[in-house]
Design brief:
heterodimer, A: about 100 residues, alpha+beta, about 30% strand, B: about 550 residues, Sulfite Reductase Hemoprotein, domain 2, Sulfite Reductase Hemoprotein, domain 1, 6-stranded mixed beta sheet, 5-stranded antiparallel beta sheet, globular, NIR_SIR_4Fe-4S (chain B), heme (chain B), Nit/Sulf_reduc_fer-like_dom_sf (chain B), metal-binding (chain B), NO2/SO3_Rdtase_4Fe4S_dom (chain B)
C-alpha cells in the first residue's frame, strides 16, 4: 500500500517585495497561509506548481510545502514554513509586523 | 584610506546603470528569474526566507565616517533601520525591495562602495586583520596588498566563473586575527632572513561541510611576487578545480585530492609564466596604493585622564580590560565596540548606532572604522586621553558592553531567521547564551572563550573554529544543535571535534552551561583559559559533564 499523500500548499516569494506568498484556490497570491489552497492530490499539486511557475512576473521560486488542515485553513507542518508565516524571531519584522498593525 | 580613482568610479557607476536596467527588465517581465538570478547575485542581491538581502562589500573591513553614515542612511531610508555586519567584514541589509536596489547601489557608489562580487563563483571581498595598521604586533599594514588584490580581482576576466567562490584573507601580524588558515588563500606576513617582509602563503583552508586547515604552499613569498603568485594559484585552481560536484569544487578539495607537493609544483610552474607577464606594473601600483594608507599623524598628549578614569571608575575599567587592544603607539589604543549587547543580535547596528560610531571615528579616531570578522566595529586609532569620552558616548548608545573575547561575544550567522539555506536558527541561541551568562554574572570569571554558531553545515558562523562550536541542524523536522569543542581560528588553528549527539533547541543553552561549569571546576588556575584547559585535559571531562544529565535521565 502506498503511503498517504501529505497535503501541500504552493508557496513562493513575491517578485517586488520578496514577501512569502501562497497560491489560493482562486489563483490569487496571498500573504496568509490559512488562505492558501490545500492540495491533497499529487497530480493536482504538480499542475498547480506549473501554474505558479508560469506566473514569473509575480513570484520567484515557487515550490510545494507540506501543510495540514486546521480550523482556520491550512497550517504549516515544518518549522521552516512556520517561520515563513511570521518572520524572524529576533525582531518583530516581516509578516508579524504587518499583523500587529 | 584608499579613495576611488576615476577608473574605479566609472566602473562602479557603469555597473549600477547596467544593473538598474536589468532590474527594470526583470520587473517588466522581459527577464525571467532564471536569467535574472545570476545577474542579481553578481551585484550582491540574494532572495532569502522573508525578503531580498543586499550584501555590500566593505573591502578589508575598512570604513570612514562618511561611508558609515551612508550605510545608516540606507538602513533608514530603504531598510528597517539597521544593518547586519558579517563574518566576512561585509554588511547585509535584510529588507530591501527589488525596485529600490538600483537607488541603494547608486547611494553606495556616492561614497565609493558597491556590492560587486559579494556573491558568485569569483574572488570575494578580501578580508584583513581588523587591527591592520594599528596593532602593536604588526610587521606592516596588510591593507595596501588587500587593496591591490581587490583591484586585480574585480571583474578579472579569467576569474569570473571559477569552479566555486574564492576567499582570500590577509594579516600583517604573527597573531592571526584574520582566520587566514580557514580561507582558500591565507596570506600571513613574515620576514625573511634579511628582515624583509613577505608572505607565508596558505592554501586550501575552508570551513563548510568539509572543514580543512589551510596548508603552507610557500614559506616565504617576496612582496614583489605576490600578485603573480596568487594569479598562478587561481589559474591552476580555475583549470584543475572540480566542476562536476559543487561540494567538491573548492580549492581545499583540489589540495586534498592532488596532494600539497604535486600541487605546489604545478603552481610554481605556472608562477614562472605569470611572473614574466606582470613586468613590475603591479609594484608601481602597490607603491601608489601604499601612499593612501600612510599612518595618521598621531597626537602627542598626556594620557593621565585615561589613567585616572581607569583607577576610579570600575565600569570604565571593565570595558578597558576587555575592549581595548595594544596600539603600535603607546599613547594610543585600539577600541573594539561590541555589537554583542547581552540579548541583542550579534553583528547588528541600528542607523543611530552607526552614526554614533561615525561621529566618534571622526572626532577621536582619525576618521577610521573597521569591521571585524567577529562582527564588531573597531576604532583603530584612539588616543588614550579620549577613551573616557568615547566610553561615555558609547554607553549612551548601548554600545559599551564590556565583553570582547568573552562568552557573550558570539559569532552567529543569520540562520533560519533570515537565510534560505539554514537548517535551524542561530540568532536566538546566541541571544539566550549571552543573556544566561550575563544573569549568572559569570562571563568575566570564565574569561576568554569564543562561541561560534552556524545555522547550517555551510558554517558561515565559523563554528568549526569556535572554542565551543554550535551547529544547528534539522533532525526529522526539529531543530537540533551539535556541539564541537577545541576549535581555534588563530595562528594555532584547529577544527573542533564533535562531542556526540546533538541537543534540542531548549537544551542547547543548559548544555553550554554544563561545559562552562565543568571548565571552571577543572581549570588549574583562573588564568588557564578554556582552550588551554581543554588542551591539557582532553575532551573526556567535558563530554562527561555534557552527557551526564542525559545518562541520569535515561536511567530514571
Amino acid at each position: 500500500m502506498s503511503r498517504p499523500y501529505i497535503p501541500k500548499v504552493v508557496t513562493a516569494n513575491a517578485l517586488l517585495e520578496g514577501d512569502v506568498v501562497y497560491l489560493t484556490p482562486d489563483d490569487r497570491w496571498t500573504r496568509h497561509h490559512h488562505e492558501a489552497e490545500l492540495i491533497e492530490d499529487e497530480a493536482h499539486a504538480q499542475l498547480r506548481l506549473l501554474h505558479a511557475a508560469a506566473r514569473k512576473a509575480e513570484v520567484v521560486g515557487p515550490y510545494l510545502a507540506d501543510a495540514k488542515a486546521g480550523p482556520d485553513g491550512p497550517e504549516p507542518v515544518h518549522f521552516r514554513e512556520v517561520f515563513r508565516t511570521r518572520g524572524p524571531s529576533n525582531y518583530r519584522h516581516g509578516k508579524q509586523e504587518a499583523a500587529a498593525h | 584610506m584608499y579613495s576611488y580613482t576615476d577608473f574605479d568610479e566609472a566602473f562602479v557607476r557603469t555597473r549600477v546603470a547596467q544593473f538598474s536596467e536589468q532590474v527594470r527588465r526583470r520587473i517588466d517581465g522581459s527577464l525571467t528569474e532564471d536569467e535574472f538570478k545570476p545577474l542579481r547575485l553578481m551585484n550582491g542581491l540574494y532572495l532569502q526566507l522573508h525578503a531580498y538581502m543586499l550584501r555590500v562589500a566593505i573591502p578589508y573591513g575598512t570604513l570612514d565616517s562618511r561611508k558609515m553614515r551612508q550605510l545608516a542612511m540606507i538602513a533608514e531610508r530603504w531598510d528597517k533601520g539597521y544593518g547586519h555586519f558579517t563574518t566576512r567584514q561585509n554588511i547585509q541589509f535584510n529588507w530591501p525591495k527589488l525596485g529600490d536596489v538600483p537607488e541603494i547601489l547608486s547611494a553606495l557608489a556616492d561614497v565609493g562602495m558597491h556590492a560587486i562580487q559579494t556573491s558568485g563563483n569569483c574572488v570575494r571581498n578580501v578580508t584583513a586583520d581588523h587591527f591592520a595598521g594599528a596593532a602593536a604586533d604588526e610587521i606592516e599594514d596588510p591593507r595596501p596588498v588587500a587593496e591591490l588584490l581587490r583591484q586585480w580581482s574585480t571583474d578579472h576576466p579569467e576569474f569570473q566563473f571559477l569552479p566555486r567562490k574564492f576567499k582570500i584573507a590577509i594579516t600583517g601580524s604573527p597573531n592571526d586575527r584574520a582566520v587566514t588558515k580557514s580561507h582558500d588563500i591565507g596570506l600571513r606576513m613574515v620576514r625573511d632572513a634579511d628582515g624583509e617582509p613577505g608572505f607565508e602563503v596558505i592554501v586550501g583552508g575552508g570551513l563548510g561541510r568539509t572543514p580543512m586547515i589551510g596548508r603552507v604552499v610557500r614559506d616565504f613569498l617576496p612582496k614583489a611576487d605576490l600578485l603573480p603568485y596568487v594569479e598562478a594559484i587561481l589559474g591552476v585552481y580555475n583549470e584543475l578545480g572540480r566542476r562536476d560536484n559543487k561540494y567538491k569544487a573548492r580549492v581545499k578539495i583540489l589540495v586534498h585530492e592532488t596532494g600539497l607537493e604535486p600541487l605546489r609544483e604545478i603552481i610554481e610552474e605556472r608562477f614562472i609564466e605569470t611572473r614574466a607577464e606582470f613586468g613590475g606594473q603591479d609594484m608601481a601600483l602597490l607603491a601608489e596604493i601604499e601612499r593612501a594608507f600612510a599612518p595618521p599623524a598621531f597626537r602627542q598628549a598626556p594620557t593621565v585622564a585615561y589613567d585616572d578614569f581607569y583607577r576610579e571608575d570600575p565600569v570604565f575599567r571593565a570595558w578597558a580590560d576587555t575592549n581595548l587592544a595594544r596600539h603600535r603607539n603607546a599613547d594610543y589604543a585600539i577600541v573594539t565596540i561590541s555589537l554583542k549587547a547581552h540579548g541583542a543580535t550579534p553583528g547588528d547596528a541600528t542607523a543611530e548606532q552607526m552614526r554614533v560610531m561615525a561621529d566618534l571615528a571622526e572626532r577621536y579616531g582619525h576618521d577610521e572604522l573597521r569591521i571585524s570578522h567577529e562582527q564588531n566595529v573597531i576604532l583603530p586609532h584612539v588616543h588614550k586621553a579620549d577613551l573616557p569620552a568615547i566610553h561615555a558616548a558609547l554607553a549612551q548608545a548601548g554600545l559599551a558592553t564590556a565583553n570582547v573575547g568573552l562568552i557573550s561575544d558570539i559569532i552567529a550567522c543569520p540562520g533560519m531567521d533570515y537565510c534560505a539555506l539554514a537548517t535551524a536558527r542561530s540568532i536566538p541561541v546566541a541571544q539566550e547564551i549571552a543573556t544566561r551568562f550575563d544573569a549568572l554574572d559569570l562571563e568575566h570569571e570564565v574569561g576568554p572563550l569564543k562561541i561560534k554558531i552556524s545555522g547550517c553545515i555551510n558554517a558561515c558562523g565559523h563554528h568549526h573554529v569556535g572554542h565551543i562550536g554550535i551547529l544547528g541542524l534539522d533532525r526529522a523536522g526539529v531543530e537540533n544543535y551539535q556541539i564541537t569543542l577545541g576549535g581555534d581560528g588563530t595562528e594555532t588553528a584547529a577544527i573542533g571535534e564533535k562531542t556526540g549527539p546533538g541537543f534540542a533547541y531548549d537544551e542547547i543553552v543548559p548544555a553550554v552551561e554544563r561545559i562552562v561549569r565543568a571548565y571552571l571546576e577543572i581549570r588549574s588556575e583562573p588564568s588557564e583559559t578554556f582552550l588551554d584547559t581543554l588542551r591539557r585535559v582532553g575532551h573526556a571531562p567535558f563530554k562527561a559533564a555534557l552527557y551526564e544529565a542525559e545518562g541520569k535521565q535515561d536511567a530514571a
